[in-house]
Design goal:
The chain has helices at about 15-20, 40-55, 75-85, 90-110, 140-160, and strands at about 1-5, 25-30, 120-125, 130-135. The protein is of the alpha+beta class. The strands form two sheets. It has a two-stranded antiparallel sheet with strand order 1-2. A two-stranded antiparallel ribbon has the order 3-4. A hairpin with a 7-residue loop joins strand 3 (about 120-125) and strand 4. Helix 4 (about 90-110) crosses helix 5 (about 140-160).
């Protein structure tokens, strides 16, 4: 894969004078191996972009209460004030940070080839198949981990059009 995306053109005066609208230069080459495990490949690109967005963002979108922990949700009084006047509460930007953190966490986990190994432990055993014997596993922990990852990817899809700076 080779991707080159130039900056946005900043000479809009050409449009006003001559009607010419310069385009952003974009070049993308995808190799066959890039789509073998495309979810993994894209995670390596998406993760640093989400981290940079969180560090440099200049605003936050509205976040649905169902997507965040209860302690970050607006009270009815705060919601009424927001609807009437547009006044935000103290957690307005914290809500978006929480959503971004969940996305970043999920994509970081996807970048790890071995995250499932956190929930298993093996020991050498010459009599066992493949020379290893399972001595400990945490299926509930693995399930919770996978569900959190899935939720981070769901949030990424839901808030995709809000990934702006």
């Amino acid at each position: 894969m080779k991707v080159k995306i130039g900056g946005y053109p900043d000479y809009y005066w050409l449009d006003k004078l001559f009607g010419w609208k310069p385009k952003q230069k974009i070049s993308v080459r995808i190799d066959k191996h890039d789509t073998w495990s495309m979810d993994h490949t894209l995670a390596h690109i998406i993760t640093p972009m989400l981290v940079q967005l969180k560090e440099t963002k200049h605003g936050s979108p509205n976040v649905d209460d169902a997507d965040i922990p209860k302690e970050l949700r607006m009270s009815k009084k705060q919601l009424t004030a927001y609807i009437k006047t547009g006044d935000t509460d103290d957690n307005f930007f914290k809500r978006w940070d929480w959503i971004l953190d969940e996305m970043i966490w999920a994509f970081n986990q996807k970048c790890r080839d071995d995250w499932e190994g956190d929930f298993y432990e093996y020991e050498a055993d010459d009599t066992a198949r493949f020379g290893l014997k399972l001595v400990w596993e945490d299926r509930e922990g693995q399930k919770a981990h996978r569900e959190r990852m899935t939720n981070g990817f769901r949030l990424f899809g839901k808030y995709y059009e809000n990934l702006w700076d």
